[in-house]
Automatic annotation (TrEMBL):
Keywords: Glycoprotein, Hydrolase, Membrane, Transmembrane, Transmembrane helix. Residues 265-523 form the GP-PDE domain. It comes from Coregonus suidteri. It is found in: Membrane. Coiled coil: none annotated. The keyword Iron does not apply. The keyword Cytoplasm does not apply. GO terms for cellular component: plasma membrane. Belongs to the glycerophosphoryl diester phosphodiesterase family. This is GP-PDE domain-containing protein. The lineage of its organism: Eukaryota, Metazoa, Chordata, Craniata, Vertebrata. SUPFAM superfamilies: PLC-like phosphodiesterases. It comes from the Eukaryota. GO terms for biological process: lipid metabolic process; positive regulation of neuron differentiation.
Length: 639
């Protein structure tokens, strides 16, 4: 290390030329230094910090030498890679958030993949695994980059990490394009989810940006380029001001007075309770009734002999053992089978094998046996199950293909089953849009329900009193408008508590869910806040953040402010060197020091220090007189 000897004057008129080609006349008066071995650090905190610095450099840039250009300014090329890293992190953050909130529709996504590939598998598992791995990796690099900035280290991303960042960026971009082309309607989950998470994400972002004030203040304190200081400050303050004003653009139906909260929406079991039993089976609907649902929803097809039965898919491959019983007909339309053949198929073993909702492992042995013995359910069985409990029944009726014996009579066949079941007509929501006039004549008590979003006036003209829409098709404003027009709205498919809470606060009358067992545990919205309470939290958070930011900037720049404003009257040699160093570019100083150290000639470090002092103040005599020392007798004249 560099150690000061007692301050003394000496004359040296010789000209020294070091081995590396530098030359400089020594000034008449200089400090005498000795080069000593750096003492071992005994402070545990210092050793920990130094060890962390070494680890950061080795992981981020594979730097193994302690002083290897560590304090140089970051090159433009590395600065560009830092921007690419930040952009990749932001893109992965959105991608991760999208799949986190899309959990409500994982089953829909898997069914979509099945229709395209013909094989059932949980396609969300590889997506979630790669997303989590990629996000963790990029977030780790971002943290290392911020640590480098915090301690003034040069950013130098290793080429292996550059390949990793490029791969993450490319695959994420491909993922965005693929989802946009094949499942574009799911993007609507992001603005809807922000109605539930927006206020909390705002507070989290405010905490993060407030913490970044430490890095920004450090950069402003260290840099000597005024333009760079202004750009950094303006950029940071713009982001901070935007966050302070962000609540003005946050809208959530859950920010409302508690007295205005509508009654809890009714829950309709979509395909029964498919998380607890095979979809569209009698056991699934029984489990749904145990979850206190208000209605049951099913998908209905017509058999070859005119019997309406429950089946979602066009074929029987996924939910029955048709490949084992009728191997040559497993790709045939489900409507091409008569009821006797359909009833002979097993509709439960597939559930135990595929475990679509990861619930089989939690089942008791008796429940597993019940699930494995399920068969295809008819519409009549469903109606007879719902009648004693006065539960609403909703079904989506699929028309048979051309050439089917019931191609023209499918509406009448279904109405006849409803009539014979004995269920009160007002408990049936009729969704098919064909021959509504004829349907009203035969069964005037049915609740005419539309699956198309139409203006309330048009719905009233067509005699429609209910809507069955996807949850993304109706905004809180739409729900309120339909409610004022006496049009009940049922939204599907609602499985997550946060989505149920948002729709509850929006005033929806009922929801269709594949998870009535989960929604049963939501007796009240997850969060509900009055506008005054939210305004108080908003203002308090902004004031606390502003105070912390000001405190950080003052603390980080305290020594510079004190040096510029205090006007020190007494200096020791160390203060003289600090004063001179402040006027000198830190980058030049570090480069000079590192050249001396790596050249193996530490004896010339005293010459370099004298050069720095003389270049900083003009001459040694000026330096002495300016700081209160006698140029000739080496005694302080100012105390």
């Amino acid at each position: 290390m560099l150690k000061f000897k007692p301050f003394e004057a000496s004359y040296n008129g010789r000209r020294r030329v070091p081995d590396d080609g530098w030359s400089e006349d020594f000034v008449k008066y200089s400090y005498n230094f000795t080069w000593e071995k750096k003492p071992e650090i005994t402070d545990k905190g210092s050793r920990l910090v130094n060890g962390m610095l070494v680890v950061w450099r080795r992981i981020y840039g594979c730097r193994w030498k302690r002083y290897q250009r560590s304090h140089d300014d970051t090159t433009k090329w590395e600065f560009l890679w830092s921007l690419i890293l930040f952009f990749t992190f932001s893109l992965l953050l959105v991608w991760f958030y999208f799949w986190w909130e899309a959990h409500n529709d994982y089953n829909e996504f898997n069914w979509f993949l099945y229709n395209r590939s013909g094989e059932w598998s949980d396609g969300t598992v590889p997506i979630l695994a790669t997303t989590a791995a990629g996000f963790t990796y990029i977030a780790f690099l971002m943290i290392l980059a911020l640590c480098h900035i915090a301690v003034g280290q040069q950013l130098n991303l290793h080429w292996l990490h550059k390949i990793g960042v490029s791969t993450a960026l490319l695959t994420t971009a491909i993922g965005f394009i693929s989802v946009n082309q094949t499942w574009g309607e799911e993007w609507a989950v992001i603005p809807i989810s922000l109605q539930a998470t927006g206020p909390f994400l705002h507070l989290g972002a405010l905490v993060a940006v407030t913490a970044l004030a430490w890095l920004v203040a450090g950069q402003v304190a260290r840099t000597e380029k005024t333009r760079f200081q202004v750009v950094v400050l303006l950029l940071y303050l713009s982001v901070l001001l935007g966050l302070y004003m962000a609540p003005l653009s946050i809208t959530s139906p859950c920010i409302m007075d508690h007295a205005n909260l509508t009654p809890r929406p009714d829950v309709i079991g979509h395909q029964g309770a498919p998380m607890l039993a095979p979809e569209n089976t009698i056991l699934s609907f029984q489990r749904a009734l145990q979850m206190n649902v208000s209605g049951l929803e099913a998908d209905v097809a017509i058999s070859l002999d005119g019997i309406p039965f429950l089946m979602r898919d066009r074929t029987l491959r996924r939910t029955t053992d048709v490949g084992k019983v009728f191997p040559s007909r497993q790709l045939d339309d489900a409507s091409s089978f008569n009821w006797t053949d359909l009833h002979s198929l097993n509709a439960g073993q597939w559930f135990l094998k595929d475990d679509p909702f990861w619930t089989v492992q939690s089942m008791a042995q008796r429940e597993v046996m019940l699930v494995g013995n399920q068969s295809v359910c008819s519409l009549e069985q469903l109606l007879r199950l719902a009648t004693p409990h006065n539960h609403t029944v909703v079904f989506n009726l699929r028309r048979p293909p051309h050439g089917h014996p019931c191609y023209h009579s499918w509406i009448n066949d279904t109405l006849e089953v409803i009539r014979l079941s004995g269920i009160p007509q007002h408990l049936v929501m009729w969704t098919p849009d064909w021959d509504r006039g004829q349907v009203r004549q035969v069964a005037p008590g049915l609740q005419q329900t539309s699956v198309e979003k139409l203006p309330p006036q048009v719905l009233h003209q067509q005699g429609i009193s209910r809507l069955l829409l996807r949850y993304s098709q109706a905004s809180p404003y739409d729900i309120r408008e339909f409610s004022r027009s006496n049009v009940s709205v049922t939204l599907y498919t609602v499985n997550e508590p946060w989505l149920f809470s948002v729709l509850w606060c929006s005033g929806v009358s009922s929801v269709s869910s594949e998870a009535p067992n989960i929604l049963k545990k939501v007796p009240y919205p997850i969060w509900l806040m009055s506008p005054d309470e939210y305004c108080l939290i908003w203002v308090a958070a902004d004031l606390i953040s502003f105070t912390v930011v000001i405190g950080i900037f003052v603390f980080q720049n305290y020594h510079i402010i004190r040096w510029r404003l205090s006007g020190m009257r007494s200096y020791n040699p160390e203060q003289i060197m600090l004063s001179a160093a402040v006027r000198r570019s830190s980058r030049d100083v570090n480069i000079m020091k590192e050249k001396l150290i790596f050249s193996g000639q530490p004896q010339y470090l005293s010459w370099w220090v004298v050069k720095e002092v003389s270049n900083g103040v003009g001459s040694a005599e000026d330096l002495y007189m300016e700081n209160g020392f006698d140029y000739y007798n080496n005694e302080g004249i100012c105390h």
